[in-house]
Amino acid sequence: MSSQNLSMRKKRELRDGKRSEIHELEVPCVFGNRQENVKLYIGNPDHKHTPTHFQETLIKVERGGLIPKEISDGLQSIRNLAKENGVSFLELCGYAIKSLSVVKNKPNDKKES
């Protein structure tokens, strides 16, 4: 997953009387020949769908846009890793985004002459 323009915030929402955790993830999506940041809401998807399945459909049908494949594939990989290792998808997703932010913001070790 690319770290370009990614940010994530936690939200807690009530659903069926229970608290559930939702992450808001802002990603660059493609609309024709332009790119626009779109907020995706990542929760714990059922096993039949990818983490962005319904939002991908909505963005494509309603707005004619696409979520970059590297974002969708990256989230699916994180989900698979979480399942294989018995950890929370949302926690692993948050860790991955924070790690990408650190790498992106790390100062360059090379000195320019």
What are the secondary-structure elements, in order, as H or E? EEEHHH
Task: Calculate the terminal CA-CA distance, rounded to whole Å.
Answer: 32 Å
Q: Sheet with the most strands?
A: 3 strands, antiparallel
Q: Can you tell me the number of structural domains?
A: 1
**Tertiary shape:** globular
Number of strands: 3
Cα-atom radius of gyration: 16 Å
InterPro entries: DUF2610
Protein name: DUF2610 domain-containing protein
Organism: Candidatus Cyrtobacter comes
Note the topology.
Layout lengths: L6 E9 L2 E14 L2 E9 L10 H11 L5 H17 L3 H17 L8
Antiparallel strand pairs: 1-2, 2-3
InterPro entries: DUF2610
Pfam family, one: DUF2610
Protein name: DUF2610 domain-containing protein
3D structure, described in words:
The protein is globular. The chain is built from three helices and three strands, in the order E-E-E-H-H-H. It has one domain. The chain has helices at about 55-65, 70-85, 90-105, and strands spanning about 5-15, 20-30, 35-40. Strands 1-2-3 form a three-stranded antiparallel β-sheet, with helices on one face. With about 110 residues, it is α+β, with helices and mostly antiparallel strands. Helix 2 (about 70-85) crosses helix 3 (about 90-105). InterPro entries: DUF2610.
What key phrases describe this protein's structure?
three-stranded antiparallel beta sheet; DUF2610; alpha+beta; 113 residues; disordered N terminus; single chain
Describe, in short, the structure shown.
This protein is α+β, with helices and mostly antiparallel strands. The protein has helices at residues 53-63, 69-85, 89-105, and strands spanning 7-15, 18-31, 34-42. Helix 2 (69-85) packs across helix 3.
